[in-house]
Amino acid sequence: MIRSKMNDKAFIIIGFVVIGIIFLLYSRISDFSITTDSIQSIERLATGFYIILFMSFGIIGYGIYRYHQRKVVENSHRLLSIIAKTTIDNKSKKIFIITFITYGMFFSLTSGLIVYQPDVTFSHDYDVIVPSAHMNACCGEPGYMPTIIVYITEHIGLQIIPINLLLVVIVSYLVGLNTALAVRAISITKKSGGLTGIGATTGLFVACPTCVSTFFAIFIGSSSAVAFTVILTQLQTLFVGITIPILLLTPIIIAKKIQKKDDDCTLNTKRE
Known about the structure:
By secondary structure, the protein is of the alpha+beta class. It has a domain at 164-272. It contains eight helices and four strands; from the N terminus they run H-H-H-H-E-H-E-E-E-H-H-H. A four-stranded antiparallel beta sheet has the order 1-4-3-2. The protein is globular.
């Protein structure tokens, strides 16, 4: 059991450490002089970067899966075990998957990972072949390079920036977990109440950071608002940074509610 405990945590830690290392190492490519002869080498390096990044995602996902399974079988009433046991049923899994995909798509749109420009024809305005993919391999700050640009149709494309991709995956996972846990907890404790407000509050904090840019894009959406849009993008990053700790704390709060309810039920049973 101890070895299994160390292994699943090690997978998660190693995955995030590797991501941090490749972000830092790749950003140092700007220290090198870029010549025609070195472009192919840099592109191969960029390809390797994304291979390692996606492998790291897989390692982290596998570690989380093993950790979740271990907490389910543990004979424990601790908070993390309660979270795992509460979200192990098929209904919770379906809610998690649906929320993860739906929120991931929405977050991708608002963060610019998925690009939709109905007023722009890519092949005409950008002089590119549709469909096609291009890699901007150099140079930039840690987490912002290399960038992959994909033109899927004349109006729909992808702009894959490593840090944005990482945020989409992390936030979507946490939103899925929070939603599955809140729905399950509310169904368990609907008679005692108290969790509905928490679930609603969670949804409010989660939705706001990704909705800000969308609302202003709809209502402003003009060339005169470019500077304002840049400010909003920076604020959205700040809001997302605030949201992640909230998403980490909310399952603990809900689990404490369930733990307290179970303790009260046990106490009442003993009295009877």
